[in-house]
Amino acid sequence: MAKTNPGRFFEDYAVGQTLHHAVPRTVTNGERALYHALYPARHALYSSDAFAQSCGLSGSPIDDLAAFHVVFGKTVPDVSLNAVANLGYAEGRWLKPVYAGDTLRSVSEVIGLKQNSNGKTGVVYVRTRGLNQRDETVMEYVRWVMVRKRDLDAPAPETVVPELKKVLAPADLVVPEGLDFSSYDFALAGEPHRWDDYAVGETIDHVDGVTVEEAEHMLATRLWQNTAKVHFDLTFRPDGRLIYGGHVISMARALSFNGLANAQMIVGLNGGAHANPCFAGDTIKAWTEVLDKADTTAPGVGALRLRLVATKGGKPFDLRGADGKYLPEVLLDLDYWVLMPK
Amino acid sequence: MAKTNPGRFFEDYAVGQTLHHAVPRTVTNGERALYHALYPARHALYSSDAFAQSCGLSGSPIDDLAAFHVVFGKTVPDVSLNAVANLGYAEGRWLKPVYAGDTLRSVSEVIGLKQNSNGKTGVVYVRTRGLNQRDETVMEYVRWVMVRKRDLDAPAPETVVPELKKVLAPADLVVPEGLDFSSYDFALAGEPHRWDDYAVGETIDHVDGVTVEEAEHMLATRLWQNTAKVHFDLTFRPDGRLIYGGHVISMARALSFNGLANAQMIVGLNGGAHANPCFAGDTIKAWTEVLDKADTTAPGVGALRLRLVATKGGKPFDLRGADGKYLPEVLLDLDYWVLMPK
Amino acid sequence: MAKTNPGRFFEDYAVGQTLHHAVPRTVTNGERALYHALYPARHALYSSDAFAQSCGLSGSPIDDLAAFHVVFGKTVPDVSLNAVANLGYAEGRWLKPVYAGDTLRSVSEVIGLKQNSNGKTGVVYVRTRGLNQRDETVMEYVRWVMVRKRDLDAPAPETVVPELKKVLAPADLVVPEGLDFSSYDFALAGEPHRWDDYAVGETIDHVDGVTVEEAEHMLATRLWQNTAKVHFDLTFRPDGRLIYGGHVISMARALSFNGLANAQMIVGLNGGAHANPCFAGDTIKAWTEVLDKADTTAPGVGALRLRLVATKGGKPFDLRGADGKYLPEVLLDLDYWVLMPK
């Protein structure tokens, strides 16, 4: 027993600690193909080398969310093995596309700690960076989780709550080097709607749905080397095998192709809530609200800030009840920035 | 809502229209491996680079049916999103092997239209071509589907029913450049039976069976970027989640290895009927009838015309009832040409 | 029917026979990614090219067990299609790492035969070698299976029972050329425990569990081109679709990461028993007992002999009942050698 990883408990964290997460991962065309088998992903930049090259990139990158899942997965053994809840994300930025052949690893810094008043748990804030084989940061994000204490008598640490941006400013977004949408092929991409055609406040029902299966979410979650027991061991929770929240994010993003086919690249993650748990048998659908628009200096490239909501029933565009809480059918409320041709 | 793709209705088609289908796709060794995970595919030419090279090719191609599924998948949003039924295939030809790294896109021409007498639906005939990154046509086929009208009062178009070959003539078949079976290794390929050993009228029970699962057919269908809702959303049809007909084709073809291990390459699709729907839990088996034989000018290469029947029960070689209709256990009746060593 | 493979029966084998198994297979990054999707595999050497290069290899190999499964799968049509039971393994050695792009084929020699006293079945011993495209042996092992007779009146062959090593001696193990653990990064690998930290007799409960699904084990078994009907056709056995024993081996090995993260490479298989059948819905857990330790001449590299036990319930470290038989919850009892940094 001594040799297995018990995970860190709340009192094991200190502000300023650096966690070098284990098990680097070389991502290849195999991961790329699996992403397309697991999600109805159709954004052309991630589907076709030729299309990506026509947009100024060297080839089709690994899906932005696949890169996120790999980076995130590495943090689980050190950050969330004893987590009670994943509370939030902020300041997520994609800094460099990840290509087949790249090797990713993750490093986190503990940037905040706050013991809960019940004395049994506390909130841990980490800023995680994903690095490639050249030690370039390919993405970064802040996540905070509620973690159990091992020893309820351990003293509470000094409370440090980091100041986090509610929303990334357009200037914070990094457009991949060379990206150029000035000769973008809308017909090949699948929809005619360009950045100019989207208005702040506009909502889009993405219409399509996928009923999720046990085998699929486990294949996905393992592929990201995410080790959280709840996603694999059906005997672990009385209510069933919990689906990794990232599986819902990827499914909803892929479904959003229908109406947002030109929202090619994800560059910012402002925030996100896994509003309710998802289990096999749920039929995931998605809708979007356009929250903001911004220009970029890259040729032909605009940015859209979107709310992506995944549901397992209910009506499109319903989000919260009269009590202000998420409706029980809402799975995900994600706030992110994408790049789109103007 | 305006931004999502409602699909085309019958009155949206006109003879002579060209449909440039969206979302090109780079196929890689990832797709290759997934094909082998999804189907019990064992034809040596598609399993081993060394074997393919010994047959005069540059390496092991992507399975012919995988290429077909990718090309077909791209047409779904433009051709069959509002289809009531997939009525038939004809004049399908594989013109060039597809290799890992190739990028495929699809273009269709509307070649026929016929409104049904009920005034609610009509038949649309399209000739689809799959093109690679060098704009070479890698395959082509004709498909006709029954499509709903949006507006029942829309006038019926002039009826145009294309003349289609019932069967491709041997001269229509394209043998891949360089293909040479003159030093073919039958032991490595798995069976001793050569072209000479098959007789017209001969039937083969392929014996093996696979009970299909929801997760598998969805992984496959997504991999081909086929977006038809019926294959993914369990709430869409009262009788269950319909399995993509192409999944049945690939499963039956792979099962046919046992008895047809040397039927290496598919070069022609004369016709095909999805006789009954397939659902998860069905156990697919297959049998073959040899319909014709033809020589080719390539060294050591003969052609066989085969009927491949997939079933979910019943007895081998039973196809139609006394009423002339397909028996309820028949899933697929496919008429195709293969290349085999002489 | 004459054209399908009925498999060999007991009287079809003769000591000294060489079986050239069919369908060579090129393994790629696609197979690599699928292995990581199918099993919670996290050993760093197989996950990261950069990590493998820091250990003196040219890149990250295909998982040792994936290589085993591919080699094993090819033997099924010739060895175990009419097998009643898989009785044992011995003298398994991994001789060269397999890399993406390598093409594997298998050759077996019949090294023993013994008809059972019931006259209906017999035991067949084969030594199987896996060869790459350069005709180098990448692995070898002995397997013996109980096979049905076709004709009960066929005369019994002379009994030949090969003398097999109960355990490979340390000198029998082949350390991959260039392997060097002298600057091994324990933090990146995921655990601090080195060879010196393991003691003979020590037991490790690997804690994590995976509830297995039908779709997953079929994807795996097909990927290895294993054609045994019992793994695919739900109608074949009254008790359900039997999971390929190799799926349990790979699942248990991957789960053993938690406590054996530095047991990087498998180099020897001393023996193994599939103690009880595994079906979808079973939750696989694993525990290990350290059986022996040995030094090697490679820099920083030690060897550990481990017993890996997979279970579907019960308590860790329980193996046999008072009657000396495996407990009903035990799925696998595997005896193997690994290489680990000192």
Automatic annotation (TrEMBL), chains A, B, C:
<dbReference type="InterPro" id="IPR052342">
    <property type="entry name" value="MCH/BMMD"/>
</dbReference>
<dbReference type="InterPro" id="IPR029069">
    <property type="entry name" value="HotDog_dom_sf"/>
</dbReference>
<protein>
    <submittedName>
        <fullName>MaoC family dehydratase</fullName>
    </submittedName>
</protein>
<dbReference type="GO" id="GO:0016829">
    <property type="term" value="F:lyase activity"/>
</dbReference>
<dbReference type="Pfam" id="PF19315">
    <property type="entry name" value="MC_hydratase"/>
</dbReference>
<dbReference type="InterPro" id="IPR016790">
    <property type="entry name" value="Thiol_ester_hydratase_Rv0216"/>
</dbReference>
<dbReference type="InterPro" id="IPR048274">
    <property type="entry name" value="MC_hydratase"/>
</dbReference>
